[in-house]
Amino acid sequence: MENVTVFAPIRLAQGKTEADLLAASAVFQREFVDLEPGVLRRELVRKPDGSYLDIVQFRSAQDYEEVTQKEMQSPVCAVFFAVMDMSTAEEDMAAMEVMVSLESHVRGAG
């Protein structure tokens, strides 16, 4: 079973701020991601152009698919997605990169 890492692009919805994104992300992490054993790690980053990437590592491609399906049904995820500009969702989904993770290092772990 190979870990996969996903780079999910995020653009803020009209009128939403980075603070809104961080608040929604904290709830999403605590009430959804932390409850999914298939999610190994998650990092939210700001890109130089002011957009964002949610970088998520999964145990396997199957875990990625299962978690993605659960996201579509989850009210907690809907609140997180509400801070995003969903007008570009199809384009963003097409741009989302799913890659096999070869190595993952965390300083001080182990």
Topology:
Elements: E1 4-10, H1 18-31, E2 39-46, E3 52-58, H2 61-73, H3 75-81, H4 89-95, E4 97-100
Antiparallel strand pairs: 1-3, 1-4, 2-3
Helix pairs in contact: 1-3
Give the structure's gist in a few sentences.
37% of the residues lie in helices and 24% in strands. With 110 residues, it is of the alpha+beta class. The longest helix is centred in the N-terminal third of the chain and has 14 residues, at 18-31.
Walk me through what this model shows:
By secondary structure, the protein is α+β, with helices and mostly antiparallel strands. It is built from four helices and four strands, in the order E-H-E-E-H-H-H-E. Strand 2 (39-46) and strand 3 form a beta hairpin. The protein is globular and about 40 Å long. 12% of the residues are buried. The model has no long low-confidence stretch (mean pLDDT 91).
What pattern of helices and strands is seen along the backbone? EHEEHHHE
User: What is the 3D form?
Assistant: globular
In whole angstroms, how far apart are the ends? 21 Å
Helicity, as a percent range? 25-40%
Provide the structure class. Answer: alpha+beta
How many individual helices? 4
**Biggest beta sheet summary:** 4 strands, antiparallel
